[in-house]
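Why do we care about 3D structure at all? Because function follows from shape, and shape follows, mostly, from sequence. That is the central idea of this module. The next example makes it concrete: a single protein chain, its amino acid sequence, and then its structure expressed as tokens.
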Amino acid sequence: MTRQDPAPGFWPRLPTWLRAIVLGLVIAMLPANIWLLFLASLRVPLAAIFELVFLVLYVWWASGGGRPYTTQAVRGTDFRRRALSAKQWTWGLVAAVFFAATVHASIVLLFRLVPYPAAAFRQGYDLSPIPSLGLKWLVVVISAVSAGICEETGFRGYMQRPMEQRYGTTAAILTSSLLFTLVHLSKGWALAGMIPIVFGAGVLLGLLAWSSESLIPGMVGHTLMDVGLFAFWWTGVAGNFTARPIGETGIDRAFVAAFAVLAISLVPVLLALSRLRKQKA
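And the structure:
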């Protein structure tokens, strides 16, 4: 299908890949930081309410609602707006849950091979000023939901979708995954061993969006992944990683178990992606 742009001018004359990258980054990163502004200026419960309202309006607009009316169709296409069947919901949720498990098993294995740099991972994620554990969990969950919705809309929607139509699926997924990885290199936790994990997560999320023809399963999986990242790896709200590298302990049962979880959780993801592709055929 040929992509039709709504109006002539400078913007439509730019290469599709450039427009997709610029628009995808803007759609992903600017809205994702609104939550930080709310959190910095309001009490946590009120900030959470404002953010949820904002996210509802954001999804409504990004999926084709509101003005400008001339871009409604393109926004709906880029958001991959469609109704999912019951089977697509089932396989999409299977992929989402096991995707999150795969990512966390990968991180556990990484830090059984090299020491876990807790200080680097906690940099910029200090929740100690928040007075109660319940409010800390609220911040964790809203942060994960915000990142899941905004980043999937930007990277797997507005960035990847136009490139799929113009350059094909492989180029689109690899490009969105590369940009997804590069954006996160500014984080303190972005050490060398995390780069293939982040890139691999981007590829799986890109495949999920393409296979399901929807951003919703990816948003669920991304949110589940980020709840674990925020709660455990970045803030310590859910506990601390204390296992030592196998260079010190040798290969133990915990290492074997983490490897087994990685292998076992990846299989349902790949199976679900295959079933979703057959559903859309």
